[in-house]
Design brief:
Keywords: Membrane, Transmembrane, Transmembrane helix. The chain is mostly helical. 72% of the residues lie in helices and 0% in strands.
Length: 98
């Protein structure tokens, strides 16, 4: 079954948007503040970086050439997008409650 028309551009733009939201969060959160980092700060940054890696891989996954015409990578790209979004929001929650 083929994916709906516009799935590839939609996934790529959603990934780029969440990447920008995550970068804005890290910028306002205080990555550049002077002083030592705590363990919770490292957890926030590690969660965000892994989320960025997942979001950055979405366009690569979805645009990878496939051997057969009917085979698509939409499902894997959707899972990578979900993982990236979940990790970015988890890092936001950790920063709020830690």
């Amino acid at each position: 079954m083929r994916a709906p028309s516009g799935s590839v551009p939609g996934l790529c733009s959603a990934s780029a948007t969440m990447f920008a939201v995550g970068m804005a969060f890290l910028g306002y959160w205080g990555v550049y503040e002077p002083g030592g980092w705590h363990r919770s700060d490292l957890i926030v940054v590690i969660l965000a970086l892994v989320g960025f890696a997942a979001l950055g891989s979405v366009p690569w996954i979805v645009t990878t050439p496939v051997a057969e015409e009917g085979q698509e990578k939409i499902v894997a790209a959707r899972r990578a997008l979900l993982l990236g979004v979940a990790l970015i929001w988890l890092s936001v929650l950790v920063s709020l409650f830690a």
